[in-house]
Amino acid sequence: MIRFALRFAPVALALTTGACFATRSDVRILQEDLAASRAAMLKADSTRAAQLAQVATTLAEVNDSLRSANAKVARWQANTVGDLRGMQEQLVQILELTGASQNRLNELRAQIEERNSQVPVGPPAPVPGDTTKPATTATQPAGPGPATLFKLAFDQMSRGSHSTARTGFQDLLTQFPTSDLAPDAQYYIGETLQAEGNSSAADSVYSLVVSTYPRHTRAATALYKHGLFLQKAKRDREARQAFQSVIDKFPRSDEAELAREQLRKAGDD
Q: What is the tens place of the pLDDT at every residue in 102-114?
């Protein structure tokens, strides 16, 4: 615009100083130049409008691509979360089935113990020359074995009699401390306390299971539940350490996979 004003300044000055100095040729030249300038401005405006339209189209395409990408990411995240949740549910089901199978084995062992609980006592050896009738065979009751004690206590726990069940599990530990059922009995003492809402006492028992039976499968479950207790208590750093210990000490266990999921959740938060 400045160049345009300077270009036509002489003509405009001539027109203002007096019509006598402006010829028809000058006027025609001025009109032609004005028309050319208008055409150039219109062309430039048209070019800018086309450029703006192209930019707007490009931005719309970019926005569409971003929306599509966001939708794909959201679907992927939803599918991933669903898959992880499904895997966790399957692991819980496996743990429950494993526990049911173990309980069935314990029931069978208890039945065997009950059948053997009546120990036959034979008659005394005959004395030469003694014509008295030998005493008939008697039976002497024997105390319940560890499997029987475990079954009785577990049945009480299943019925909701947690205190009675806890006493039964403790009797097993007292009478048969080296039994292969001792780790399970100790663990279920913690479970009865947890069922009664005494989480702190239950966590102490879980920690005892880990320290007393560090290589038993119950130690993996107890250590994982210890991590859940710490997590609920907002002791996040200690909880992560507990979950990592599950992974390190029992890498192939179902609890290790559950611990990995807890660590992933903690990382997302």
A: 566 666 666 565 5
Specify the pLDDT at position 23: 79
Which distant-in-sequence residues (6+ apart) come within 8 Å of 216 by Cβ?
183, 209
The owner of tokens 């205190």 is 163
Average pLDDT of the chain, as a whole number: 79
Alpha-carbon distance 242 to 247, whole Å? Answer: 9
Q: How many domains does the chain have?
A: 2
Per-residue pLDDT at 137: 46
Residues linked to residue 138 through DSSP beta bridges, in sequence order = 121
Per-residue confidence band for 61, with pLDDT thresholds at 50, 70 and 90:
confident
Q: What is the pLDDT of residues 21-31, one digit of tens each?
A: 557 777 778 77
Instruction: Say yes or no: 52 and 99 in one domain.
Output: no
More confident residue, 142 or 36: 36
Q: Is 60 exposed, middle or buried (0-12, 13-18, 19+ CB in 10 A)?
A: exposed
What counts of helices (H) and strands (E) characterise the chain? 10, 2
222-253 b/e with 16+ CB inside 10 Å = b?
A: bbbbbbbbbbeeeeeeebbebbbbbbebbeeb
Same domain? 7 vs 105: no
Distances (CA, A) of 260 to 23, 95, 195, 248, 263: 94, 16, 25, 11, 5
Q: Are residues 95 and 211 in the same domain?
A: yes
Domain range holding 33? 2-64
| Residue 257 and residue 222 in contact, taking contact as beta carbons nearer than 8 Å | no
**107 & 206 share domain:** yes
Q: How many CA atoms lie within 13 A of 140 on its CB side?
A: 5
